[in-house]
Amino acid sequence: MSSRRNDVDRTLTTSGNDELTPLRRRVRAVASRVDRELPWSLTRDPWAIYVSEVMLQQTSVARVLEPWRRFCDSFPTPAACAEAPLGEVLRAWAGLGYPRRARNLQMAAQRMVSDFDGQVPSGVEELRSLPGVGPYTAHAVAAFAFGRRVGVVDTNVGRILARCVTNSSLTSPHAQELSTRLVGRADPARMNQALLDVGAQFCRATPRCDSCPLRRECRWRREGGPDPATGSAGVSRPQARFEGSNRQARGRLLAQLRLGTCQKSAALRILAYDNLERASALLADLENEGLVSVERGRVRLGS
Fold it and tell me: Considering just the CA atoms, what is the radius of gyration of the chain in Å?
């Protein structure tokens, strides 16, 4: 453990007293004021929460709202998703991008059926064992669906911790530890949601410090210095450019296939009309991933 880490820990605990208590109380006090009233925060159905967290990976809340409702109506249980043709799952995923997530979601549903009696597992490590589930999603589902006493660290919560709590850059493990300590024992789902809401609305890349409800508790605001959130917690990674990318090309073809099958030659033109080698490689990748199948010169959605 670094000396800087030891210094930070000492500032948070003095003579056995938890110095996170004032901030914890403040977060609880403002929870109802910052609540964005998202539909998945109004349910305790673990599957619906699980679906929302997978959809929210690298995707804004606004884009997830309607697909989440549509998906949950089509596949209300893990078993319903597990048993459906992949093509139907991909159609229900329309508008979200990153179709591997839809495939991973169905594979996770199949694991739930085979290994967890058709239920979403409640523990962080069990959740991490599912396809497509990383630390954030596992902690979010454990907290929001099952009330586990764990912190949920997204990009904005990472900024709150670095700015408000320590005024120092944090590693991912340290951010996770601090988040769990800050959330505390009472109603971890509500505490985590409040932190996510404050982060999304105020503690952004360009922070809105003057209107932030945590400004009086913020160490960075009191002490000053360079922004400690820059590069902190390992939770903020810029996405690669979309325009002209393989991801855009794949998305074009999958959007077309949601309407029906097409000739392989047409699929190759959609993928890269001026580069047959690139188009062929992309189509092969989609087929290997099970997102499309090619039979008798025609391409269709799903394996």
Answer: 22
Q: How far is the C-alpha of 227 from the C-alpha of 168, rounded, in Å?
A: 8
Q: Which of 82, 85, 138, 88 is nearest to 107 (CA)?
A: 82
* Known catalytic membership, residue 289: no
Closest CA to 110 of 122, 102, 118: 118
Domain extent for 105:
39-146
Q: Which residues, other chains included, contact 212 with Cβ-Cβ below 8 Å and sequence gap of 6+?
A: 198, 202, 203, 218
HSE toward the beta carbon, residue 164, CA cutoff 13 A: 32
One DSSP character per residue, 22-40 reads HHHHHHHHHHHHH----GG
By the 8 A CB rule, do 294 and 287 touch? yes
Q: Which residue among 146, 163, 178 closes a domain?
A: 146
Nearby residues of 103 by Cβ (< 8 Å), 6 or more positions away: 86, 89, 90, 289, 290, 291
Q: In this structure, are residues 199 and 154 in contact, taking their beta carbons and an 8 Å threshold?
A: yes
Q: SS3 of 99, please?
A: helix
Per-residue pLDDT of 216-266, as tens digits, reads 999 999 999 999 998 777 655 555 677 778 888 888 888 899 889 989 999
Annotated active-site residue in 37, 53, 126, 295: 53
- For 24-80, the pLDDT digits (tens) are 999 999 999 999 989 999 998 999 999 999 999 988 899 999 999 999 999 999 999
Element of type H or E holding 292: strand 292-295
Does residue 158 share a domain with residue 13?
A: yes
